[in-house]
Amino acid sequence: MSINCGKSTIVLDSAAMFAGIELSYGIFYTTEGVLSEVLDINSRMRLEFAIASGKIAVITPPRDYVAIVKSVARELGVLRELSNVDIEVLALASYVKKACGSSILYTDDRLVQDVAIALGIEVRGVKYIEKNRLSSYSYRCRSCGLRSSFPGTCPRCGTTLELEVSR
Ligand SMILES: [Zn+2]
């Protein structure tokens, strides 16, 4: 399967899969890693069907895009919090953006959303609640103590903000 910009620029993560986004009109891209996270039998059967009928295209993002995602995540101070699947799906969204000029990533994961936005990818939530994820977090400047809900550099002193996690 390859990217067909005329048909779709939408990438789905596992939350989007559980929410059944692929049942809506159109075709969607995802990765092997995302599929491997979908274990319940009903979702799996639905996905097998969607893949067989060409509604879901499973694409492995090129290594360069994985490297770009890792470097952006590192700059944002969130690399260690991202799973390999998170990185893979971000790399795919980044690859689609490069190929098509834009891409949309469906995910409810705040960290994935933050990195996607930094990569210029459009983000949509799917309102699936993942219970084992971080409950709340913010970004904090180590030099001046400023707190922010967004990653990046400190608006006061320019230092890279660090992720602060509370469970
Ligand atoms: Zn600061």
Mean pLDDT: 87
- The CATH architecture classification of the largest domain is 3-Layer(aba) Sandwich
Number of helices: 6
Order of helices and strands: EHEHHEHHEHEEEE
Instruction: Report Rg.
Output: 16 Å
Strand order of the largest sheet: 1-4-5
Beta-strand content estimate: 15-25%
CATH superfamily membership of the largest domain: 5'-nuclease
| Distance between the ends | 40 Å
* Poorly predicted tracts of residues: 129-135
Question: What are the bound molecules?
Answer: zinc ion
Categorize the overall geometry: elongated
Largest sheet: 3 strands, parallel
Number of strands: 8
CATH class of the largest domain: Alpha Beta
- For the record, the count of structural domains works out to 2
Helix content: 25-40%
Structural class: alpha/beta
What does this structure look like?
By secondary structure, the protein is α/β, with parallel strands linked by helices. It folds into two domains: 10-124, Rossmann fold (3-Layer(aba) Sandwich); 136-166, no CATH class. 38% of the residues lie in helices and 16% in strands. It has six helices and eight strands. A three-stranded parallel sheet has the order 1-4-5. It has a three-stranded antiparallel sheet with strand order 7-6-8, with no helix packed on it. A two-stranded parallel sheet has the order 2-3. Helix 4 packs across helix 5. The radius of gyration is 16 Å and the shape is elongated. Bound molecules: zinc ion (ZN).
